[in-house]
Design brief:
Belongs to the thiolase-like superfamily. HMG-CoA synthase family. By secondary structure, the protein is an alpha+beta fold. The protein has one domain: Thiolase/Chalcone synthase (Peroxisomal Thiolase, Chain A, domain 1, 3-Layer(aba) Sandwich), CATH 3.40.47. It has 16 helices and 18 strands. A hairpin with a 3-residue loop joins β14 and β15. α3 crosses α4. The two termini are 42 Å apart. The protein binds acetoacetyl-coenzyme A. The site of acetoacetyl-coenzyme A has 26 residues, from α2 and α7.
Length: 441
């Protein structure tokens, strides 16, 4: 019996900013962002969108595109680091939105007996949800699980993270009918606790508060959706963890150079070119190339052989990332969709090919695993139209972007949107203060 991904769907935020507009306003050379990091557009949520609406959109699309009966789903596990509440899971909001939408067709509370939960470990939380769900379907081959990766990658204005923002969701149906890709349940794992990127409950001093400090206690704690991070250190942690997890994968699978057998290498992509930049280390170790400095490592990336390797095994997975930006937990799965969609568009046959995954979550952990493409993959991919769909987003100008970022807009940029949206947040009723209410329009 085989297990893996039976079907997949995605949702990209409805707005975007051209990266060259950001570069111009911030005084950054556009070529650095476009040719250095591979960024073209940055996906941004409208006022009514958040990680819960992204997840609901991807979930609904999965159900309708592949004619899934929601009552057949035993689990919905969401990987996210953009939770809207520290107790009530984002999964419960997304599930409720879809339940309401499907009420006419399936009756009230169609997910009544479904186990829903969030999993958080920065960008790797949805890979953890996949790992867990595969174990679940292996133990219960007649059951199906849904994994959703959903996030909004937001950084402080004018910070070095600003040009690596983005967001969106990918939903995966996990079962014993892996019509897209069978996942080999063997996981190389590497973990180390570090502070490369995190979202602490930040402590503020009274004098830091601009408005009415007398109303606040001496110190307050708040959650922030913008991370504390050290970009170059996070790159190093990413490189170290994937090297360690890859080594572990080799040990547990008794393989010597697994990457050579992989048709595609699918990375967590915080920006489009990250995978190809950091893989130079593993590539060099595997091929007996030694380097002592970062400059020497970079020279590996310029070799004819490495460029050919990138063009054949990584480039197609980068294409969607260039158009959307960082999707945190969803980035690795969007890289997979991008590679599949590109091969589909170019009429390539991937049946039976092996695909390798190199996942990373700050804080920090990496998982390396692999899968085999199903002979039925084209039927699954035929529902996506990934690159066409991305063309239908609405472009916004820089001023609108800054206002959205600062939460200064009261109404949606696109008031005629069609989909799930935040309707209101309860502010008065003391026993419901902060409750979020959504609707579909
Ligand atoms: C957050 C997660 O999602 C989890 C993770 O993966 S952690 C690892 C990634 N970390 C992050 O994404 C954190 C947020 N982002 C950041 O901190 C920063 O944006 C970053 C670290 C990702 C990039 O930092 P930066 O200082 O702006 O860029 P830098 O690392 O110098 O790279 C710029 C590239 O553009 C190239 N470049 C510069 N000017 C150029 C030009 N005019 N033409 C062409 N290329 C140019 C540089 O040569 C360099 O490429 P190479 O190193 O391959 O030669």
């Amino acid at each position: 019996m085989t297990f893996g991904i039976e079907a997949a769907s995605f949702y990209a935020p409805s707005l975007y900013l051209e990266i060259k507009d950001l570069a111009e306003k911030r005084g950054i050379e556009p070529a650095k962002l476009e040719k250095g990091l591979g960024l073209h557009k940055m996906g941004l949520p409208d006022v009514h969108e958040d990680a819960a609406t992204f997840a609901a959109e991807a979930l609904l699309k999965l159900i309708t595109d592949y004619q899934i009966n929601p009552k057949d789903i035993s689990r919905i596990y969401i990987g996210t680091e953009s939770a809207l509440d520290a107790a009530k899971p984002t999964a419960s909001y997304a599930m409720q939105m879809v339940e309401k939408y499907l009420e006419n067709e399936f009756g009230e509370r169609c997910f009544k007996n479904c186990d829903v939960v969030d999993m958080t470990f920065a960008c790797i939380g949805a890979v953890d949800a996949l790992h867990n769900s595969l174990d679940f379907v292996q133990a219960n081959p007649d059951k199906k699980a849904i994994v959703i990766a959903s996030d909004y990658a937001k950084y402080e204005l004018s910070s070095p993270g600003e040009y690596t923002q983005g967001g969106g969701a990918v939903a995966l149906l996990i079962s014993s009918e892996p019509n897209l890709i069978e996942i080999e349940n063997k996981w190389g794992v590497a973990t180390e606790s570090v502070f490369d990127f995190f979202k602490p409950r930040r402590q503020f001093k009274k004098e830091d508060l601009k408005e009415s400090p007398e109303n606040f206690p001496d110190k307050i704690e708040i959650f922030t959706d913008e991370p504390v991070f050290d970009g170059h250190y996070s790159n190093q942690c990413y490189q170290d963890r994937i090297r360690e997890a890859y080594q572990h994968y080799k040990e547990i699978t008794s393989t010597t150079k697994p990457y050579e057998n992989w048709r595609y290498l699918i990375f967590h992509l915080p920006y489009a070119f990250h995978g190809k930049r950091v893989f130079t280390e593993i590539y060099s170790l595997e091929n007996g190339i030694s380097f002592d400095t970062l400059e020497e490592q970079k020279s590996v990336a310029k070799s004819e052989e490495y460029i050919q390797f990138i063009n054949s095994k990584i480039e197609k997975s980068q294409r969607a990332s260039s158009e959307i930006g960082n999707m945190y937990t969803a980035s690795i799965f969007m890289a997979l969709l991008s590679a599949f969609q590109s091969s589909y568009d170019e009429n390539e046959d991937l049946s039976g090919e092996e695909i390798g995954f190199l996942a990373y979550g700050s804080g920090s952990k990496s998982k390396v695993f692999a899968g085999k493409v199903s002979p039925k993959w084209k039927k699954v991919v035929s529902k996506w139209n990934l690159f066409e769909t991305l063309k239908n987003r609405l472009a916004i100008d820089f001023n609108t972007y800054e206002k959205l970022h600062r939460k200064q807009l009261e109404h949606s940029v696109n008031p005629d949107y069609n989909g799930f949206g935040l309707d209101r947040i309860e502010l008065e009723n003391p026993v419901l203060k902060g409750a979020r209410y959504y609707q579909h329009k």
